[in-house]
Amino acid sequence: MHTVWKGSISFGLVNIPVKLHAATEDKDIKLRQLHKKCNNPIKYKKTCEHCNEEVQPEDIIMAYEYTTNKFIELDKYELEKLKKDQEAKAVDIINFVKLEEIDPIYFDRSYYLSPGDGGGKAYSLLRDSLANSGKIGVAKIMIRSKEKLAVVRPFNNALIMETLHFPDEVRAISDVPNIPENIELSKKEMDTATLLIDQLTEPFEPEKFTDDYRTALMELIKEKLENEKGVEAKQLDNNVVDIMKALEESIKKTKAKKTTRKKTEERKKA
């Protein structure tokens, strides 16, 4: 399993070298956009609207837009230093809480934690002590230049880390429009709804659920591959391009020579 991050997690005086592995993967079927004329994939280029030209990576700077169309530039060395300063203190477990105290709206992504070299015993200590206490650890960690709030908890026979959204990243429920309040519901309506919920209640078994759209899309693709001939992108012939450029340059040079010759002849006649 691919390692996405290496470091350590500490609680108290215990330091645990760990490796981070993505616990989930994107199973979406990727569809490409092609140019209808030649079936070549569409590419997106970074351009400047003001200069009307493509911008190369070395010509791009980072900046923060503090008001409309006004920016403060951030030097890449300043950003790198800030990142390194935060990385040194980003993996400490701050405190311990109960899992049920955290609303699912805060959860972002899940990662498996495996012990690094020599970290097996400390890893087991944290895993087993969390399982015995019924608590989870709250920590901060730097991943891909961004500080994230996270929780560490036992999962089967391993530790799992789940990143969380910071409170200011979760929008206020009061901003949601048209939420009904003080709607009177009869006892019969409530009893019927509760009965329906009870009848449909069963243990959560995630393997029972599948992505029906993805399955149907994959079946459609397989069917088309069996019954239709795929399209092929028209490759650009570099030789043709080189020849065309050579011809165009030759025409320009020929025109220039004719113009020079004509001016010379006119001077002689004068």
Automatic annotation (TrEMBL):
CDD domains registered for this protein in UniProt: KU_like (cd00789)
Gene Ontology molecular function: any one: double-stranded DNA binding
Signal peptide: none
Spans traversing the lipid bilayer: none
A GO biological process held by the record: DNA recombination
Coiled-coil annotated spans: none
Entry-linked PANTHER family: NON-HOMOLOGOUS END JOINING PROTEIN KU
Quaternary state and interactors: Homodimer. Interacts with LigD.
Purpose: With LigD forms a non-homologous end joining (NHEJ) DNA repair enzyme, which repairs dsDNA breaks with reduced fidelity. Binds linear dsDNA with 5'- and 3'- overhangs but not closed circular dsDNA nor ssDNA. Recruits and stimulates the ligase activity of LigD.
Protein name: Non-homologous end joining protein Ku
Organism: Serpentinicella alkaliphila
